[in-house]
């Protein structure tokens, strides 16, 4: 099978002889991939990995599977074959794949080294996105969407309406990250939000918060090209580098009640963490969406206490988030044309390394989401 695969740190390449994925279990479905987006996490696996991928030629603890494997976890496609116990999808359905895997998936794989029927305490509480063994399709658990075909469990498929374009559907994954974060914040219609960082996640947050009915959104971003992108989505932008005291300056933006109702750190440096915390109002909420390295940072708990603020985090998503995002795009709550603005490139799998990964590594600010397709003839110009 043709795929853009992860072989090891520093080695991602196209190959046309990857093993065909098969239905290994009655509840799995085989999907013909339409589109799959490249994520910053994919770049990290190349540069700093293996992070989620199996190490040292070993097996993934959840699935027992080894490298190489096709990468890609932001995918849409069309179901081509279903296992004998599949009831939730049928051949021909258009789907998106919720790529998170947890303890609840272990039963799919005979070779899992986690031979237990007991779910971890997060999974037992239904918080599968916080699973102690969390992994991802396309990041080592099993092969992902930079391939002609992929198999996943029916529980991770969300059927999408056929009129929803499959390229836009590949954005459901990053949108679900920020949809989950907006729910964690308890964000309400009419509230105000400040977003740190206008990368793919910050811009996805903008679309989601607009969909939640935000009355005002301000995006703080250093790179001018990315500020322009945010601006074209109809929100106010702010350049922290222009001000000696960016927090004070942001706090001067009139938002009604001495600060924003919510702030989302979609960047992950001390400056954005501090800003997200300080620009919120009394009982406001600051959500850390960013993934940090191991180095801790300082913060003063009284900055939370004296204004009864909430400081929280959001990780991944659930299949419900996916369903809600699909519905939000279908109903126009998240406009299709706004989603399209996030797609800055479409490439064939064969060109995915050069015109996808390298392009993102070398020209990060001019890109948001580059999608790859294995379906070179029918879909590249769709
Ligand atoms: N919580 C989750 O489940 C989840 C899922 C996916 C990604 N993430 C994380 O979300 C974060 C954002 O992802 P991304 O792909 O958009 O990353 P990105 O690096 O493309 O975007 C971050 C942006 O922050 C901007 N920035 C840097 N310093 C700044 C500052 N001081 N003020 C304002 N802006 C600043 C950068 O210019 C950049 O545009 C990453 O940490 C990523 O790992 C989290
Ligand atoms: Zn678990």
Quick overview of this protein structure:
This protein is α/β, with parallel strands linked by helices. It has helices at 40-47, 121-124, 166-169, 172-185, 200-211, 224-232, 246-251, 270-278, 302-305, 319-330, 336-342, 352-362, and strands at 3-8, 11-15, 28-37, 69-70, 74-82, 94-97, 100-101, 135-136, 149-153, 157-159, 192-196, 216-220, 236-238, 260-265, 280-288, 310-313, 343-348, 369-373. It folds into 2 domains: 3-159 and 335-373, Medium-chain alcohol dehydrogenases, catalytic domain (Quinone Oxidoreductase, Chain A, domain 1); 178-313, Rossmann fold (3-Layer(aba) Sandwich), CATH 3.40.50.720.
Task: Explain what this protein looks like in three dimensions.
With 382 residues, this protein is of the alpha/beta class. The chain folds into two domains: 3-159 and 335-373, Quinone Oxidoreductase, Chain A, domain 1, CATH 3.90.180.10; 178-313, Rossmann fold, CATH 3.40.50.720. Helix content is 26%, strand content 24%. The protein contains twelve helices and 18 strands. Strands 3, 5, 6, 9, 10, 17 and 18 form a seven-stranded mixed β-sheet that branches. Strand 17, helix 12 (352-362) and strand 18 (369-373) form a beta-alpha-beta unit. Helix 4 packs across helix 5 (200-211) and helix 4 (172-185) crosses helix 10 (319-330). The radius of gyration is 21 Å and the shape is globular. It starts with a strand and ends in a 9-residue tail after the last strand. The model has no long low-confidence stretch (mean pLDDT 95). Bound molecules: nicotinamide-adenine-dinucleotide and zinc ion (ZN). Nicotinamide-adenine-dinucleotide is lined by residues 40, 177, 196-202, 220-223, 226, 240, 266-269, 271-272, 289-291, 314-316.
């Amino acid at each position: 099978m043709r795929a853009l695969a992860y072989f090891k740190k520093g080695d991602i390449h196209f190959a046309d002889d990857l093993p065909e994925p098969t239905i290994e279990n009655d509840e799995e479905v085989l999907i013909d991939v339409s589109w799959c987006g490249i994520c910053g996490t994919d770049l990290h696996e190349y540069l700093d990995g293996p992070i989620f991928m199996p190490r040292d030629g070993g097996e993934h603890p959840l699935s027992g599977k080894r490298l190489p494997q096709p990468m890609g976890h932001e995918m849409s496609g069309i179901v081509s074959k279903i296992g004998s116990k599949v009831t939730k999808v049928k051949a021909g359905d258009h789907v998106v794949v919720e790529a998170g895997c947890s303890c609840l998936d272990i039963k799919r794989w005979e070779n899992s080294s986690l031979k237990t029927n007991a779910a971890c305490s997060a999974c037992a509480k239904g918080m599968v996105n916080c699973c102690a063994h969390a992994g991802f399709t396309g990041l080592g658990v099993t092969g992902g969407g930079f391939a002609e075909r992929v198999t996943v469990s029916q529980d991770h498929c969300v059927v999408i309406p056929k009129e929803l374009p499959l390229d836009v559907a590949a954005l459901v994954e990053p949108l679900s990250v920020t949809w989950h974060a907006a729910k964690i914040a308890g964000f309400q219609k009419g509230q105000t939000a400040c977003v740190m960082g206008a990368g793919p996640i910050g811009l996805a947050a903008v679309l989601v918060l607009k969909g939640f009915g935000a009355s005002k959104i301000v995006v703080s971003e250093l790179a001018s090209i990315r500020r322009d992108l945010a601006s074209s989505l109809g929100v106010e932008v702010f350049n922290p580098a222009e001000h000696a005291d960016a927090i004070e300056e942001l706090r001067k933006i009139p938002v009604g009640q001495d600060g924003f109702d919510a702030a989302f750190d979609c960047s992950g440096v001390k400056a954005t963490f501090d800003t997200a915390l300080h620009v919120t109002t009394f009982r406001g909420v600051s959500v850390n969406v960013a993934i940090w390295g191991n180095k801790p940072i300082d913060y003063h708990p009284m900055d939370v206490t004296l204004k009864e603020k909430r400081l929280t985090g959001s990780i991944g998503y659930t299949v419900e988030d996916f369903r809600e995002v699909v519905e939000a795009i279908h109903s126009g709550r998240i406009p299709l044309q706004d989603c399209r603005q996030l797609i800055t490139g479409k490439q064939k799998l064969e060109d995915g390394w050069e015109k996808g990964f390298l392009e993102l590594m070398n020209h990060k600010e001019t890109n948001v989401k580059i999608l790859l397709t294995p379906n070179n003839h029918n879909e590249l110009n769709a």
